[in-house]
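Customer escalation, tier 2.

The customer says the design service returned an amino acid string that "doesn't look like it belongs to this structure." They asked us to rerun it and document both sides in this ticket. The original structure tokens are below, unchanged.
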């Protein structure tokens, strides 16, 4: 959507390891920018040297610690017509990195926001994991505290989409152990370490196997990919779940209740009477 002011916010994806992965447009945007907001100005300097470009923009630091305070200044620059380039240490700004506040503020003021697509640790790890990629969800960093981490994992224990996480090398063993406890020791997963870098490694196995492996000295940037929960068998379907499935067919597919009950019975292999009783029980409970 085109904004009503002349300024433009450009979110620039940067290499997650190998500088040669930088998209060609990144070099052009680094030169064209009037303001560059960088998560780490030293890393920005190394990146521009690797790309052999010499930006003339005003460079400001923009990281977690000053994001709230610096956002109004950057918005003011945008409202004044500046082309502001936002770069983080690796990957796409605002995805588990600084940037969301600035994007939200720009959108609120109808300022044009665009992006230079670049390498993504989420998609790269997903692609090389060997796990299903047709449906997935990104969960960011798990909470640091053990109790909060277990609670968050329990929220997605029944999620059937493949799960992708970022994690610190110092906590990866604890997180994998917690996942084995909540998701099941046999759930398949992959630990993707130092993607696109010299010591890239992808370790695949069950959560229990990976937790034991990670108990050693694990270093580098870590992305975890975890298989989704298996489709529940008839013996695992509660009356509440059966009633929910019938309701979904009624509301989303427009099926009559009798048709929805028959369809759920067919897909689960359960008697229609059992599904009907579940729907009646849910109605009475409501």
């Amino acid at each position: 959507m085109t904004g009503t002011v002349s300024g433009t916010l450009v979110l620039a994806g940067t290499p997650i390891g190998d500088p040669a992965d930088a998209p060609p447009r990144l070099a052009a945007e680094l030169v064209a920018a009037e303001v560059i907001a960088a998560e780490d100005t030293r890393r920005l300097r190394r990146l521009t040297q690797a790309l052999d470009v010499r930006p003339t923009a005003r460079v400001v630091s923009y990281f977690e610690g000053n994001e709230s305070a610096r956002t109004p200044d950057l918005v003011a620059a945008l409202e004044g017509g500046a082309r502001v380039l936002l770069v983080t240490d690796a990957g796409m700004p605002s995805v588990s990195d600084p940037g969301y506040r600035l994007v939200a503020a720009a959108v609120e003021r109808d300022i044009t926001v665009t992006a230079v697509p670049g390498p993504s640790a989420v998609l790269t790890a997903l692609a090389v994991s060997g796990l299903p990629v047709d449906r997935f969800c990104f969960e960011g960093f798990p909470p640091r505290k053990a109790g909060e981490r277990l609670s968050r994992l329990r929220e997605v224990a029944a999620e059937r989409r493949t799960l992708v996480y970022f994690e610190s090398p110092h906590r990866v063993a604890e997180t994998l152990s917690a996942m084995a406890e909540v998701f099941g020791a046999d759930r398949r997963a992959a630990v993707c370490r130092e993607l696109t870098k010299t010591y890239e490694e992808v370790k695949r196995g069950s959560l229990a196997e990976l937790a034991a492996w990670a108990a050693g000295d694990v270093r580098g940037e870590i992305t975890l990919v975890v298989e989704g929960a298996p489709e529940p068998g008839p013996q695992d379907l509660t009356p509440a779940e059966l009633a929910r499935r019938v309701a979904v067919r009624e509301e989303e597919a427009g099926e009559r209740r009798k048709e929805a009950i028959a369809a759920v019975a067919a897909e689960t292999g359960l008697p229609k009477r059992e599904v009907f009783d579940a729907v009646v029980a849910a109605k009475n409970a409501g």
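Tier 2 assessment: The sequence is consistent with the input. The first helix runs from residue 24 to 32. The first strand starts at residue 8 and ends at 12. Sent an explanation to the customer and offered a walkthrough call.
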